[in-house]
Amino acid sequence: MNDTIQSVNPSDDSLLIGGANLHSRLFVGTGKFSSHEIVPQVLEASGSQVVTMALRRVDWKNPQENILNYMPPNTILLPNTSGARTAEEAVRIARLAQAAGCGNWVKIEVVQDQRYLLPDNWETLRATEQLVKEGFVVLPYMSPDLGAARRLQDAGASAIMPLGAPIGSNRGLQTKELIRILIEEISLPIIVDAGIGRPSEAAEAMEMGAAAVLVNTAIATAGDPVFMAQAFRLAVTAGRMGYLAGPGERRIEAAASSPLTGFLQEG
Amino acid sequence: MNDTIQSVNPSDDSLLIGGANLHSRLFVGTGKFSSHEIVPQVLEASGSQVVTMALRRVDWKNPQENILNYMPPNTILLPNTSGARTAEEAVRIARLAQAAGCGNWVKIEVVQDQRYLLPDNWETLRATEQLVKEGFVVLPYMSPDLGAARRLQDAGASAIMPLGAPIGSNRGLQTKELIRILIEEISLPIIVDAGIGRPSEAAEAMEMGAAAVLVNTAIATAGDPVFMAQAFRLAVTAGRMGYLAGPGERRIEAAASSPLTGFLQEG
Amino acid sequence: MNDTIQSVNPSDDSLLIGGANLHSRLFVGTGKFSSHEIVPQVLEASGSQVVTMALRRVDWKNPQENILNYMPPNTILLPNTSGARTAEEAVRIARLAQAAGCGNWVKIEVVQDQRYLLPDNWETLRATEQLVKEGFVVLPYMSPDLGAARRLQDAGASAIMPLGAPIGSNRGLQTKELIRILIEEISLPIIVDAGIGRPSEAAEAMEMGAAAVLVNTAIATAGDPVFMAQAFRLAVTAGRMGYLAGPGERRIEAAASSPLTGFLQEG
Amino acid sequence: MNDTIQSVNPSDDSLLIGGANLHSRLFVGTGKFSSHEIVPQVLEASGSQVVTMALRRVDWKNPQENILNYMPPNTILLPNTSGARTAEEAVRIARLAQAAGCGNWVKIEVVQDQRYLLPDNWETLRATEQLVKEGFVVLPYMSPDLGAARRLQDAGASAIMPLGAPIGSNRGLQTKELIRILIEEISLPIIVDAGIGRPSEAAEAMEMGAAAVLVNTAIATAGDPVFMAQAFRLAVTAGRMGYLAGPGERRIEAAASSPLTGFLQEG
């Protein structure tokens, strides 16, 4: 494998969210890793500039063990409200995170369903409305639905994070059609969050026009998480480039890439 | 996009075909480009070490216009027998290519069907048998079928090149199940050739365990072929790394990546 | 084709909605047909007991042309609120339908999106809450989402009608994963509405455990709508029977259905 | 479920194979059933006119237990050469079947691969050539490939039986694209054999234009095989009718089936 590419980064292709100008379109999560030690290597290998983390994972009483210490400099922390079952709980977690010095970004995650951990769009909208008013940069995790996305947009969300499949399922873009419509109809960045299990699936989301993807389980449960983080990094870039390069049309029949006749007559 | 990755190339992951030790797993074709001028840029951007070309495309009477002049040094030329309808025609083209100084690699392409340009496995096998005897490094393009692949292997082919979808269709891995079986049951390298239309599809083929992919139309018909070649380069590496990293299992239900309870009680 | 089956109707497999005991699990719509004359033939061929209709289609000033005249006896009319953009408009349409003698069933359809005609789950919920209070049997058309379905259930809906794909697209079960989860997690009947374009897709929805399907465009735009209505009738029954019969498990490898060895030795 | 349809059988839609005029397009197999007793009920429920059976299953020494006794009158027996690994073995089995009074139809099944039980197209072709010469009505089971199908057609096969997925896998139409091409390019009847696991998948094959399907494992491994046989019977008819009725086109965007505006203004 030989990937010392020099010139693939058009300087104007960055993602603007909450005032930040992101060059990486791979967001990563920090859950499920077998040890804290591997997390910084994964973060570095991913090239990610936005890292999400459940506040529960922060070991407040044991600061030297704190995962926050492993965050690379210049990385944006995106605390999530995992564990919240209502808007009020999500708001409370967000405020605690901010008070603890985690900044003003927040990924809203409100889940009432315990089997598929699907986000509740109603509570998510209410939490978004409140936290935007309080000055947070709000990225809501949501069940892909155009009406919900429109309301989240109107409420001031900075991006929309629809799921591709249930969290941790590694099952890819099961909701592809709805995500396609969100990308087409919503002007906010669409960040596919949850379900992506393979680098190819991340690339496909980007080719569809997603602004970014968030990956956690697929990296954390890989045989070699650091290597898998690199794989996702390349895949996200590849998918983004594929989108920008303008893919050719699909055809039902064949179209010769080599001339079909004439060789033997002229050879 | 920020991809100045240093350490993703495990020195032991190379592809051995016909005595060559390949670091790139992206083979590219040279058909369908709007101009000769863009080809060398595409080849360089792709990082490819194996380039296929129909002999018809070589302008023997006008050597300074010859596409062979654009081949980067240290690139292996893989002449293809495009235009052949029988084993005999394919053998004749291969010999002419060799006589013209194109080396001893050959991609056998024997097509009798004019609508889908599907390869004929019978004629392909006969051509393979003959050309292996003559000392060629033979890579047969074939319709994915286990029995045919076994015979090509027994005949001394150096790799097997099943199609993902009809040539030039950009429709991806339509024959996924059969290719999966070939990868599992055949010990030769499996190189997916034809049909791949998006970087994500190339990545998926690699994640399945394909040894390499050959891409032509998807690059040639892209809005920016050079940029698309880079996208495919990254995607192939990403897919290969995903395969090597050992993907996590897929699950029907969700599995929390963040803890679901306990935060508020302990906050 | 020979389908004079006698004994396929277990007497206990009926669908109970709003006090009605339905034997047919195919609901049909009356839009888009080239002429009024064909509608009664389609209705009869479909065997449907529930027929949806936009009130606008009723020609109040020209009663003898009225499509209501074509309704077979013992068929339940399911007026829909097509054209409504808000809950209030939907409620108003439902009341008008009831006042006009169309009964107390209503399919709520509130659409704000003009390109994909996707239902708005928020307005749909509000209309459901109101109309249930007024004694209607409410069947809301909705964008598949577990949280929305739970709220509609709590509000007293009689069934949930998630879309498979945008109305009129004939693109099948694009939202399969979300519908699967609704079937598993919601105790109300799940009726797949919109998008089903082929009999096989209706059968698949039934095999997944859907309680019924609603089909309109696929029948109305077929070359022979009457014949297609019969095809859907059989497909829905086939899918339901497949579900009840208990399908065998899927396997990655083969499993011989015939013995593989021993014949020649013993023959 | 109410399926006493009267007029769905256009008298001119029959399938002509080997001189027989078939009204049922569902072929069934007799392997894997838990007991002999259930087989005649399954055959009757399926409405099938062609039944395949491995000769090994015939208990020659115990004639009263013989499955042949259970065959409904006017059913065509299609002995298969299951267990054969070469053309010669297949030919020998076919001759034995004929000598034993099983008629002159034969399904050629030559398998060398023990994991996926994939048919070997080379040996299958050789057996076809020989048995056609001997006057058999030959239906070869094959790995879907256009070149192989053309050769089988030229050799005098009466139909082509490509697999949808490995035998007994219940995984459906994994080879859909190749089967689609066979249906388009080959003038013989295409009968999808192996892999079909659900009634909806049988319907889909028929909608694609397959002439018939052969189902065994999906029925034999169902919770209620007799009921599942009825389900497949209806599904095959539904799919065939869907094909004949002329399906409407698929659209990316929505198309209203009900009028979107005007109601409230006129109500």
UniProtKB/TrEMBL annotation, chains A, B, C, D:
GO terms of molecular function: thiazole synthase activity
Record's subcellular location: Cytoplasm
Active site (UniProt): K107 (schiff-base intermediate with dxp)
Record bears the keyword Oxidoreductase: no
Gene3D superfamilies: Aldolase class I
Domain Thiazole synthase ThiG: 17-259
Keyword Cytoplasm set for record: yes
Pfam families xrefs: ThiG
Keywords: Cytoplasm, Schiff base, Thiamine biosynthesis, Transferase
One GO term (biological process): thiamine diphosphate biosynthetic process
Catalytic activity: [ThiS sulfur-carrier protein]-C-terminal-Gly-aminoethanethioate + 2-iminoacetate + 1-deoxy-D-xylulose 5-phosphate = [ThiS sulfur-carrier protein]-C-terminal Gly-Gly + 2-[(2R,5Z)-2-carboxy-4-methylthiazol-5(2H)-ylidene]ethyl phosphate + 2 H2O + H(+)
Binding residues for 1-deoxy-D-xylulose 5-phosphate: G168, A194, G195, N216, T217
InterPro entries, per the entry: Aldolase_TIM, Thiazole_synthase_ThiG, ThiG
Pathway: Cofactor biosynthesis; thiamine diphosphate biosynthesis
GO CC terms: cytoplasm
EC number from the UniProt entry: 2.8.1.10
Subunit-level organization: Homotetramer. Forms heterodimers with either ThiH or ThiS.
Family: Belongs to the ThiG family.
PANTHER family, A to Z: THIAZOLE SYNTHASE
Described purpose of this protein according to its UniProt entry: Catalyzes the rearrangement of 1-deoxy-D-xylulose 5-phosphate (DXP) to produce the thiazole phosphate moiety of thiamine. Sulfur is provided by the thiocarboxylate moiety of the carrier protein ThiS. In vitro, sulfur can be provided by H(2)S.
Protein name: Thiazole synthase
